[in-house]
C-alpha cells in the first residue's frame, strides 16, 4: 500500500464516514447509500477510491456488492502510525 494514496483516500469526510460504518460491519452498497444519504454514483465513486487505495475489499453476493475493511490496511496503518510517531518525536521544533 502506498501511503500517499491512503492519505488521499482518507482526506475526504464522506470516505471517513464510510470507513467508520465498515469498522462495525460489512455493508452492501445500498446500505451505505441509505445510511449516509448518498446517491449510487457518489457512493460508488467513494468506494472505488477507498478500494483503489487497498483500504476496502469487496465481494459480490447475488446482485449485491458487499464492502469490508481490508485487514492488511489495519495492520499497515498501525505500523505507519508507529513510524510517524517515531519521526515526529525526533523532530526539532522551533
Would you write up a description of this structure?
The protein is elongated, with a radius of gyration of 15 Å. A 3-stranded antiparallel beta sheet has the order 1-3-2. The longest helix has 19 residues. 63% of the residues lie in helices and 15% in strands. The protein has one domain: Winged helix-like DNA-binding domain superfamily/Winged helix DNA-binding domain (Arc Repressor Mutant, subunit A). It has 94 residues and is of the alpha+beta class.
Keyword list:
94 residues, alpha+beta, Arc Repressor Mutant, subunit A, three-stranded antiparallel sheet, 63% helix, 15% strand, elongated
Can you tell me the CATH superfamily?
Winged helix-like DNA-binding domain superfamily/Winged helix DNA-binding domain
Task: Give the ordered list of helices and strands.
Answer: HHEHHEEH
What is the tally of helical segments?
A: 5
**CATH topology, what is it called?**
Arc Repressor Mutant, subunit A
Rounded Rg: 15 Å
Helicity range of the residues? 55-70%
Q: Overall mean pLDDT score?
A: 89
Largest sheet: 3 strands, antiparallel
| Number of structural domains | 1
Contiguous low-pLDDT stretches (5 residues minimum) are none
Write down how many β-strands occur, each being a DSSP E stretch of 2 or more residues. 3
The CATH architecture comes to: Orthogonal Bundle
